[in-house]
Amino acid sequence: MNDSSMTNATPDRPSGASRLARLGIAIGLVVLIVGYSAYFQIPEGSGAVVTRFGNPVREILAPGPYAKLPWPIDQVHPIDLRKQVFNTPYTATFTKDRKNVVVLAYVVWRVEQPLRFLQAVGSLQAGASKLDGMVTAAKNVEFGNHELTALVSTDADTIKTDAIDQAILEQVRGPAQEKFGIVVDQVGIKRIAYPEENVAAVLAQMRAERVAEADRLREEGTTEANRIRDDARVEAEQILRSGRQEAGRIRAKAESEAAAIYAAVRELDPSFYRYWRSLEAVKATLGAKATIIMTTEQGFFDVLSPPTEKAPPDTPSLEKQSISRRGEP
Q1: pLDDT 10s digits, 295-314
Q2: Residues 6+ away with beta carbon under 8 Å from 128
Q3: pTM for this structure?
Q4: Residue 181 burial (CB < 10 Å; 0-12/13-18/19+)?
Q5: Span 84-194: which CATH code?
Q6: Quick one: where's region Disordered (predicted)?
Q7: Residue 74: half-sphere exposure toward Cβ, Cα within 13 Å
Q8: Backbone angles phi, psi at 35, to 5 degrees
Q9: Domain residue spans in the chain?
């Protein structure tokens, strides 16, 4: 009896409540998965393009949470909007004076229009490659408009690298934004190298510039020295002229005062005045170490001795006088 009863028994089946609970859990998981696939987050410094079955439907430029239709209906393509920097490879180019130089440049850029960038370029690596070609072409054009002295020189005024960088930037900026949705913020020459055959030419050019600078400094020094000498001569002549004028004025004043004194003395004592003037005449006439033989009757010599008596008629005239130097007959 026990065996037959065990054979006819059937296993327990799940109740209706249990089946509903399991169905609810399954539906909840599906809703959660679908809801999660419909949510996406744009981080700071990034943008995105939302496509629906491959066609762009939305361009996002601001960070934050967003919603979309679940995959595979909508798909999000994130794009980095931060500034990017890349170095162009070393490229050889010619200057205006046919000198070969090898240039390494750098470019600072960023994506401004994610949709246009995605359609025209697709990735940051491809964008850098596009800019590399544009910068290289502009660089060849600008270097061909300048001589080697605009790139390397001992004279800072002749260096034109900043102007060359700006010209390259102006050539690249417009087309890059129009075609690729890229904004180029800066283009610069990072390094300039020279082939072996150009080193001697560069050194010779620098030597010539140094010689020219030395000649210029010498010329400026000579000009300044001549100017100082001329100014000194003019100033010295002015001083001498002023001195001569002052001396003439003093001399004229002294002569005027002396004449007045002479006149006053003559009025006071004519005989003394004549005596004193005779002494002055003797002093002015005689030189040093002079011997004089003279009579005491004529000229100013009568002041040296008392007058003599008149000679007899037969006595030879003493009016003749002879003046000789000591030791002469």
Answers
A1: 656 555 555 555 555 545 44
A2: 84, 86, 107
A3: 0.49
A4: buried
A5: 3.30.479.30
A6: 303-329
A7: 17
A8: -65, -40
A9: 20-80, 84-194, 270-323
